[in-house]
Write a structure and sequence with these properties.
2 copies of one chain form a homodimer.
Chain A (H helix, E strand, L loop, with lengths): L4 E4 L3 H12 L4 E4 L15 E2 L10 H25 L10 E4 L3 H16 L5 E4 H7 L9 E5 L3 E2 L2 H14 L3 E3 L4 E7 L2 E7 L2 E4 L2 E4 L20 E11 L9 E3 L4 E4 L4 E5 L13 H14 L8 E11 L6 E4 L5 E5 L9 H18 L1
Parallel strand pairs in A: 1-2, 1-12, 2-8, 4-14, 12-19
Antiparallel strand pairs in A: 3-7, 4-6, 5-6, 9-10, 10-11, 13-16, 13-17, 14-15, 15-16, 18-19
Helix pairs in contact in A: 1-5, 1-7, 2-5, 2-7
Pathway (chains A, B): Cofactor biosynthesis; thiamine diphosphate biosynthesis
GO cellular component, one term (chains A, B): cytoplasm
GO molecular function (chains A, B): flavin adenine dinucleotide binding; glycine oxidase activity
């Protein structure tokens, strides 16, 4: 069976659109060189936090993020129904906390920007924050409560997308490396694997930071994606849990999961493809987490890992047709790939459908 | 072949004496439930540092340690010759560094005690310390240089002892759990394993913190040994190495190995047999190491682990005959088991020989 469209890379930048297309009866095949989510998606924090992650000057990205946030509730309900599994979508909201008065100035500055953009963000003093999260450090002078910023477990999200694709008749093949894109008369004809050729009229490159390893991509049009390393550590959240809300301090964020894990991240390091954990990286996020939630001192360490964020120069993802007919990009989701999953999926579907109709 | 003496536990508290006895023609059998060194010895830092580890009021322990220090050079030379391997015995000396003026007061207090005990310890200012170790933090105001405090790689030490025992005709059996000591007419007759009974006229219990799991020990005379957890992390020492000397700061020690590892330790935690790493434990030793050697910030993490020190109430090891004829103790070496290896071995040999002559 010849697929209608091949996705290269089983991270959320590919899986979302593959699922939606499969449900529309399009024959999709997702090829992943490792396991689904092993590259970047399964290593992410999973914050759905346009307001908490807001950076000055990134209004275009914010617009795309807010569009995605609006899609999340329906997207997750449908995904959980179709995959018959839960993805730990939690709507407790996010707290942005300051650790001292200087830090509170920075946060108030951000809050001004939130209000300019009409984002729903509530300013709170330290006592009000500790009312919501009694474990927060006594010295925290204040911060912001973002009721609308949520979270999901990225590993479960990836698993659910794979199941939903398969339940809709699509294919996901793991341990299968694409060596090159092949073209015929200037248009995509398929992909070359180690073990042979698969013909397909359309190919979506959703390979994240590993984009450049694929031969045959149009160099002039190829998105520039570079890896930015993040170090993470997971500890036991305990019972009763140390935390219910996502909490962002100045030097670390803390994400409680329903399975009892508390995920702590993360560094932003321009270190190429070096997957190392470093003494300083671990130290910085541990201290950053401890200064907002001192109770983690006794928490058992469950694991440590690093991931590579696929960053572009302007931090905007590239979800579009390429200069080669039949070839599409869905890469460069940076810090926000999990959040952007529904909007990316919908945009890719409409780009694909528009292109197929024209063709 | 019936052994003359069985050692229960292949940590350094047993292996040292087993080797010396094997070389004297005694038929020794060492039984280890896991791998040699897996319990405590292989997880140790390996500092040979009576002066740097000195605690007020522990003169008796110090005497035993100094005796062991005098034995180390000959012990290691003979061990390396007999085992045909190196154990990374390094004699660069140890630096005890203060991180601020208060801390320097504490160190000067310790130095007074060193001089009372006529230990050879040199007081240095910060610049002199940085002359020896250029990577030390610029703010370090001073400290002590202990030329005579050395180090060894505990994992190599364990391997070398096992090889030397075997080369001398002794046996070391790993993966072999002793369930009970058996007696006959009030004297030791052998040990009971899961897979059968081994008869022997003498048994040395060198099982460290796991002592209590062995049935049939005389309860009134059994040493009280409790586990005190230590958390450790190893990072890449780099080239040129970040460090040559062992360095002790107020909150962490750093031990450079010739194979490029830099071992950082350690916490002292009364947590029973819980082997967990904790967020706070890792954070404390990382911060403790970073404040004396800022260059570790970029150092790649190679591994993390915990160990249990076999502590006694008075911190003195018990190397002696028990109340049961043929049964001996070599347990409770606390923080200093590696340092005490030669003196423990010699003491055990003389206790054993004295007892056999009397018998």
């Amino acid at each position: 069976m010849t697929p209608d469209v091949i996705f290269i890379g089983a991270g959320v930048a590919g899986l979302g659109a593959a699922w939606l297309l499969a449900e529309k009866g399009v024959k999709v095949l997702v090829l992943e060189r490792d396991e689904a989510g092993a590259g970047t998606s399964g290593r992410a924090g999973g914050m759905l936090a346009p307001s908490a992650e807001l950076k000055f000057g990134e209004e275009e990205l914010l617009k795309f993020e807010l569009e995605s946030m609006r899609l999340w509730p329906d997207f997750v309900a449908r995904l959980e129904a179709r995959s018959q599994m839960k993805v730990d979508y939690r709507t407790h909201g996010t707290l942005i906390v300051a650790v001292d008065r200087d830090d509170l100035e920075r946060i108030d500055h951000l809050w001004t920007y939130h209000r300019e953009l009409e984002l729903e963000v509530q300013r709170m003093d330290g006592d009000a924050l500790r009312e919501l999260e009694p474990g927060l450090a006594p010295g925290i002078p204040g911060g912001l409560y973002v009721r609308g910023d949520h979270q999901v477990d990225p590993r479960l999200l990836v698993q659910a997308l794979v199941k939903a694709i398969r339940n809709a008749g699509g294919s996901v093949r793991e341990g299968c490396r694409v060596l090159a894109i092949e073209t015929e008369a200037g248009a995509v004809s398929g992909v070359q694997l180690e073990e042979g050729f698969i013909s397909a009229p359309s190919v979506v490159v959703s390979a994240g930071v590993w984009l450049k390893e694929i031969e045959g991509l149009p160099k002039d049009d190829r998105p520039r994606v570079r890896p930015v390393r993040g170090q993470m550590i997971a500890v036991e959240c305990g019972e009763p849990p140390l935390l219910k809300h996502v909490v962002r301090g100045p030097d670390a964020y803390l994400i409680p999961r329903s399975d009892g894990e508390l995920v702590i991240g993360s560094t932003m390091e321009e270190q190429g493809f070096d997957p190392a954990l470093t003494a300083g990286g671990l130290m910085d996020i541990l201290v950053g987490a401890w200064e907002v939630l001192p109770g983690i001192h006794q928490a058992r360490v469950l694991g440590t890992w690093t991931g590579f964020r696929p960053m572009t120069l302007d931090n905007m993802p590239q979800v579009r047709a390429s200069s080669v007919p039949g070839l599409f990009w869905s890469v460069g989701h940076g810090r926000n790939g999990i959040l952007l999953t529904p909007a990316t999926a919908e945009r890719m579907v409409s780009v694909y459908e528009g292109s197929v109709l024209v063709g």
